[in-house]
Design goal:
Strand content: over 45%
Helix content: under 10%
Structural class: mainly beta
Number of domains: 1
Oligomer: single chain
Distance between the termini: 32 Å
Number of helices: 4
Radius of gyration: 24 Å
Largest sheet: 13 strands, antiparallel
């Protein structure tokens, strides 16, 4: 087990400066705000390798051939992906974007929506240092932001992307990175659609015989009927409550050779066209532009994965109601002092699927349908495995506990034509990894919280119109502490939050004819032993940025 937390690595590393480039957004501007900060970077000039330059996107890939920088040979202290995106003023849907190198996803996210008067543009940075083994050799790659234009949807999407390489030196040493990166995606790169709970994304790698540890990074993005999965109810209530079916629980299930191996809770990302487009202009939702994957620890399976045979590593989505886009990568660390590692899984309590408890009390009295629909699920497990390595017998135990609740209240009054759906959802996951034996025994304790409060109210308005008022409070909270040989090693906390409110006005034909009361905030806070204490706060009114503050705290 490597006790440099995977999530911490995405934020910064010791002795690195948190970069804060000039905001693309100014007070009084409607341009897109990127709330999340860029990762830390050395105080050095990087070598830049362009991947895509000014690509105009339709339905086709922007292909490229990547070559490592000759002037900055590895090892590297840091590798950062820089992506720029712009849209023409006009009308366009939010679009999904990805970037692939050697078949592995370096970026997965979505785009802002333009307006007839605003062509948004933004840029962001991703720490891709863990892909060093892949980036050390020439690779093919592509970026795709699938976009379609017609007489109504007129806005064109343009993007550029480059890799920034920071050479390692005495001040900024190279971190320990995975020895092997195995894409979990379509052949050659690309997401895989999962349209039902039985659909799987599967890879069948034959790994080296000296695997010391492994983790799987997973992206699971709701699409189609599952874009708003957190608003869904059981099929038996869907028609009555005028809501999507399939229930409210979605969860990634990971297996190794058909054996349950991990659980990936799914973050309720909301795209910039989600529910009400004005909610997210100019401040998109949490991670909307640039998703972070969930890290599934597979080190207890190291001995099994080292046996020289091909292994099926699969992911499916519990509750999938058409559909999810899936992608990821398997990161493998090898024992450099051994050619063979043996071992086995000695304990595995993970059930193949969750067993949610769903209760409801929906009544209809005098034309008013109302009541709660509640979903609760607990999916806890312990997996222990050992590997006989060059440092002796190393035992790794993963204890993960995920608690999910989705409480919805409805009031549908057919007499007045009003509709209210109020949702309070919480997903809390703790992941504790303990390693005994070997050269670096230690522990890693990580918690993730995904609170989401959402209310949607519809009512008649003047002139035969009707209004929809939406309120959203969306957060991502994460913390991690690690110890090595009983001594504190690192600690961090992050909080990524949005609030947004708006009222849309529709005409009798269901077309948007206006909006009012739009206000939103975006806040990002981070602190820890190996990252700078940083606060980023933004606010907007009527789709115009009204406040922006970025500061380092003590």
């Amino acid at each position: 087990m490597r006790f440099r937390s995977a999530l911490l690595g995405a934020l910064s590393t010791p002795a690195l400066l948190a970069a804060t480039p000039a905001l693309a957004q100014k007070i009084g501007s409607p341009n897109t705000v990127v709330v999340e900060p860029p990762p830390g970077a050395p105080k050095e000039t990087p070598c830049t390798v362009p991947l895509v330059s000014g690509a105009v996107f339709g339905a086709d890939n922007a292909n490229f051939n990547y070559t490592p920088p000759a002037s900055c040979p590895g090892p590297w202290a840091k590798v950062i992906l820089h992506v720029q995106v712009s849209l023409d003023a006009g009308i366009q849907y939010d679009r999904t974007g990805t970037l692939w190198v050697g078949g592995a996803p370096l970026w997965f996210g979505t785009t802002s929506e333009p307006s007839p008067n605003v062509g948004p543009h933004w840029n962001f940075y991703r720490d891709v240092t863990d892909f060093t083994a892949l980036l050390a050799t020439p690779q093919s790659g592509f970026e795709i932001i699938a976009n379609y234009t017609n007489s109504q949807d007129t806005s064109v999407i343009t993007s550029s992307a480059a890799l920034l390489f920071y050479p390692a030196n005495a001040t900024y040493p190279a971190p320990t990175t995975p020895d092997l990166v195995v894409p979990m995606a379509a052949q050659g790169g690309g997401t895989v659609g999962l349209d039902s709970p039985t659909d799987m994304l599967t890879i069948t790698p034959t790994l080296p015989t000296n695997v010391a540890s492994a983790r799987l990074d997973l992206y699971l993005q709701g699409q189609g009927g599952d874009e708003f999965w957190y608003t869904c109810v059981p099929n038996s209530l869907s028609s009555e409550l005028e809501s999507c079916g399939g229930g409210a629980l979605r969860e990634g299930e990971v297996t190794v050779d058909g054996t349950p191996a991990g659980v990936a809770p799914i973050y309720p990302w909301i795209f910039t066209g989600g529910i009400d487009p004005y909610l997210w202009a100019p401040i998109p939702g949490v991670q909307t532009l640039n998703f972070d994957p969930f890290h599934v620890e597979l080190t207890p399976f190291a001995g099994l994965l080292s046996n020289g045979a091909a292994h099926n590593i699969s992911v499916s989505v519990y509750g999938d109601n058409n559909s999810f886009s899936a992608a990821g990568a398997l990161f493998v660390y090898l024992d450099h002092n051994a050619t063979t590692v043996t071992g086995e899984v000695t304990r595995n309590t993970l059930a193949a699927a969750p067993n949610p408890k769903i209760t409801s009390n929906i009544t209809t009295v005098n034309g008013v349908t109302s009541g709660p629909v509640k979903t609760a699920s607990v999916h806890n497990y312990t997996i222990t495995g050992y590997a006989v390595t060059s440092a002796g017998r190393v035992t790794t135990t993963v204890q993960q506990a995920t608690s999910f609740t989705n409480d919805q209240d409805f009031r549908i009054n057919n007499n007045t034509g009003t509709y209210l759906q109020a949702i309070k959802q919480a997903t809390t996951t703790s992941v504790n990894v303990t390693t005994t034996g070997g050269a670096t025994p230690g522990t890693s304790a990580t918690t993730y919280n995904y609170p989401l409060n959402l209310s949607i109210g519809i009512a008649p308005a003047k002139g035969g119109n009707f209004s929809q008022t939406t309120n959203v409070n969306q957060q991502l909270l994460a913390s991690n502490t690690t110890e090595v040989a009983g001594l504190p090693n690192s600690q961090f906390d992050i909080s990524d939050a949005r609030t947004a409110t708006d009222t849309l006005v529709f005409n009798g034909s269901g077309y948007i004819v206006g909006n009012y009361g739009m206000a939103s905030t975006g806040t990002y806070l981070q602190s820890g032993t190996a990252i700078p204490c940083l606060s980023r706060q933004f606010a907007a009114t009527n789709s115009i940025l009204t406040a922006a503050q970025i500061k380092f705290c003590k």
